[in-house]
Amino acid sequence: MNIEEFLLRNNTDEKLSELILFLSKQGKTIKSGFLNSQNKTETKNVYGEEQMELDKWADEILINGLKSTRLVRYIATEEQSDIIEIDNPKNQFGIVIDPLDGSSLIDVNLAVGTIIGIYPGHVLDRGENMIAAMYILYGPLTTLTLTIGKGNGVHDFVMNDDGEFFLTKENVEIPDGKIYAPGALKKDYLSEHVKFIDNLEREGYKLRYSGSFVADVHQILHKGGVFTYPGFVKKENGKLRMLFEANPMGKIMTEAGGAISNGWIDMLSIRPHAIDEITPVYIGGKKEINLIQMYMRESQ
Ligand code: AFP
Question: What residues have CB less than 8 Å from 196, skipping those under 6 apart?
């Protein structure tokens, strides 16, 4: 079943379906950019144009497409400092996008991804109010992982040669598993985080960290465990962006039976104040998220 048939079968709102289909089609275009960027000579691309960094290029593809289709009212992306508002939009949706997460890994051919969250209106909203979230992962295969609404599950698709996505796994649920993906430098860990990591290591968790949030969380979603980019010495709010990275991936993890926390509380219950807000992130199985929240509470 292709993604269009899937959306239809699940009685997805027509406007939301149109937006999700549009976004899924950008996967093929963005993927083609990886190939073209291999051909670059100095700063010119194969067409003799100035070569842009791929994350900026992907950002333009998505923003220009959304502007011309007018499928959303608000656009916020990791590459833009302000929210873009579309004139005369067809829908009132707000969209948050990390066009190419993990882009520093492109030159070594590791997996990177596009992360997207969709809100009913303005984007400075609690993650729990998202009406859909998805990511496209560009690895050996190009896959799309999607959740729509509340309680409708998480579903995996794979792209074929024509750029069309087909359902491969319905109702993905995070299993019990012992993988941990720890960001930040160990020497800068805060004491509660040290206890958390020590506990995981004592329990025999295996370290798996690539430097691409979307790829690392995809692994945790399918194999179990926890990804963390904590707050650390002199950067108590950590590194990851709440709107573009944490919340959409957290929405997907939560709908798959897992959880996301800033170490203290459910991240999706927090209202962001600015689009560039950063936050400590713990995302994965409920057991691991409860554990860090217990250590944080004990430290009070
Ligand atoms: P880039 O998109 O600049 O590569 O950043 C990726 C990222 O935001 C996230 O995907 C990774 O989990 C994290 O940064 C990696 O950070 P470290 O390099 O500090 O491990």
Answer: 228, 291, 292, 295
